[in-house]
TrEMBL record:
<keyword id="KW-0732">Signal</keyword>
<dbReference type="InterPro" id="IPR017937">
    <property type="entry name" value="Thioredoxin_CS"/>
</dbReference>
<keyword id="KW-0201">Cytochrome c-type biogenesis</keyword>
<dbReference type="GO" id="GO:0017004">
    <property type="term" value="P:cytochrome complex assembly"/>
</dbReference>
<keyword id="KW-0676">Redox-active center</keyword>
<dbReference type="InterPro" id="IPR025380">
    <property type="entry name" value="DUF4369"/>
</dbReference>
<feature type="signal peptide">
    <location>
        <begin position="1"/>
        <end position="18"/>
    </location>
</feature>
<dbReference type="Pfam" id="PF00578">
    <property type="entry name" value="AhpC-TSA"/>
</dbReference>
<feature type="domain" description="Thioredoxin">
    <location>
        <begin position="234"/>
        <end position="372"/>
    </location>
</feature>
<dbReference type="InterPro" id="IPR000866">
    <property type="entry name" value="AhpC/TSA"/>
</dbReference>
<keyword id="KW-1015">Disulfide bond</keyword>
<dbReference type="GO" id="GO:0030313">
    <property type="term" value="C:cell envelope"/>
</dbReference>
<dbReference type="InterPro" id="IPR050553">
    <property type="entry name" value="Thioredoxin_ResA/DsbE_sf"/>
</dbReference>
<dbReference type="InterPro" id="IPR036249">
    <property type="entry name" value="Thioredoxin-like_sf"/>
</dbReference>
<dbReference type="InterPro" id="IPR013766">
    <property type="entry name" value="Thioredoxin_domain"/>
</dbReference>
<protein>
    <submittedName>
        <fullName>Alkyl hydroperoxide reductase/ Thiol specific antioxidant/ Mal allergen</fullName>
    </submittedName>
</protein>
<dbReference type="Pfam" id="PF14289">
    <property type="entry name" value="DUF4369"/>
</dbReference>
Amino acid sequence: MKKIILTILSLLPLAVMAQDKFEISGNLPKAGSDKIAVLSYKNSQGKDKNDTAAVKNGKFTISGETAFGNRSYLVLLPVKKDTAKRNRQADFQVFYLEKGKYNVTGTDSMATAKITGAQAQTDFLLFNSKMDTLTAHYKVLTNRFLKARSAKDTAEMKRIQREGKPLGVRMNAAIDAFIFSHPDSYVTLDLVATEKAAVIDPKVFDPYYKSLSKRVMSSFTGQKLAARYAKAMQLSIGKTLDFTQTDDKGNEFKLSSLKGKYVLVDFWASWCAPCRAENPNLLKAYKTLKDKKFEIVGISLDETKAAWLKAVAADAMPWIQVSDLKGFKNDVAVRFGISAIPQNVLINPDGMIIAKNLRGEDVLSKLSEFIK
């Protein structure tokens, strides 16, 4: 009996792998036979992999094994590189790959071909159809903005930014509509991970996160998102916070040394324009509240000390500054899942987080609600 059970168990991984097989059949009749198709995807262990296939009379086939549904890329390349066409735009298309059969149909280009297959790709095509008009409008505005910036036409830049705001609202609304109507889609999972998780604030993020099905959350992307969420929850309201870092004078600083004070812990960097734009607001608040047991601790995600200290001096920041000069690999940032800045948290005299992401010209009034 024991031998039978072991035999059955030994066959299980093979059965699982067999279920995750895919096959891609391409037909681009005018592509000729001097091209290769390159597939970039995640294999069944979640590792990045590239597979290639020769294109013969416009046809090619690629098969392999994957797991879940993942964003992948199909590229059409010449067999011999033409050095004279170095700046030529890559001929590729993004699609979603999972177990099943796929068809790539077109003429001579991968970018304009139609890729059909399993459910994740069907979802992706549906999402793109709802976003196409909005995305096209966004590209037009972006090109206009780049031209205006090149010409240093600030009036035109401001006009474009005003036009862009309602477009941004419509784009976000379209993304939200897709997310909440397709909670069991790998496309939705990617949208939540890329569009909604830059700053994980439970009040804002939880409706998206908790709408995702168990099936998609068990995927490679889902597991990574769950890990980020768990880290971010350590910075949620009601949690206590402490850390140790080196300050700008080379001394060891421990956050708990400020116990008894209200402390705004601010994640920033010298190269972060939105962060630098917030510094005048923080300076105003600091000057007003510093005699009311209030302190600011800036955690810089810089990688060079010179750039960090130059920005501290330029923005006249008199508060405590710390950094380990590891960029986004800063020990504190990694510990709490900080992947976008600016971000900040306000802790009370007992070291407990009582507010998050206080920004803008009204940051002083927001802080004053807590600090009397």
